[in-house]
Fold:
Amino acid sequence: MRISRRLAAAALAVPLALSMTAGSAQGGSRPGHPHPGGCRQWIALTFDDGPSSYRTQTLETLREKQVPATFFDVGVRVAANPQFAGFEAREGHLVLNHTWDHPRLTTLTAEEVRSQLARTEQVLARAGAPLPFRLVRPPFGATDPAVESAFTAEGYAFVTWDVVAVDWDVATTSEEVRDTIVQALRPGLVVLMHDGPIDSAAGAADEAALPQVIDRARAQGYCFGQLDAEGEVVRARYRGTRAPVPEVINPVPYLPLTETSRGQLPPEPYVVVDPAAQN
Ligand SMILES: [Zn+2]
Structure:
């Protein structure tokens, strides 16, 4: 799996809104902020594949720690539980496109890639989280020149990540998730976590690791930003609301379970979906 981060068509990515720009948020005087003098080292926490049953806990941890995050959600899961997307946007999180049902895009036609992007865009907009800009994280980080051309044609840049633990395997512990990320800390780091992968029963280890990752990064002087339209880490600010954190109401779509679930099943409610039936 690709561990480096690449960008495509960055110059062609057209911001749909200018609400989030570098320097628009200062960490300064918020209560509980660990760096009252301001931050010089920023990293971004990104969460792929949701919203799953683990999203509620992720959002509660982010609220408790006052951390803004970037979510790369899959459309089929947003459609199943649309109550998360608008809440996330109002809390100051960034919700972006991780395709409709998580295919390996290199196996699709350009029209199918376009459809994967467009359907997810539409469901996020209907759920109250219209894209602020077109940035996609391709499932598995898998692209090729044809996929990248399809992204460009739709006005998308893409981003992968700098560090990820093997958190889709239920055998990976929270300590392993935490240590993998903490050992990689450097300014501008893009961290990938899964609060419930679409194709495995994992997720609990990430939930246990998340507050520790936040605390250890802060102890080393890091603050938490988000991604910009070109996939770079920029300053951001958590905006708390008083709204209750949503919970999963409808069955969470799972792709046929893989060996990384090791016989475990995801939290109820869930439904196993056939990707072929989604198109
Ligand atoms: Zn994914």
Observations:
- The CA atoms of residues 86 and 128 lie 4 Å apart.
- The longest helix spans residues 110-126.
- The radius of gyration is 17 Å.
- Residues 1-32 have pLDDT under 50 and may be disordered.
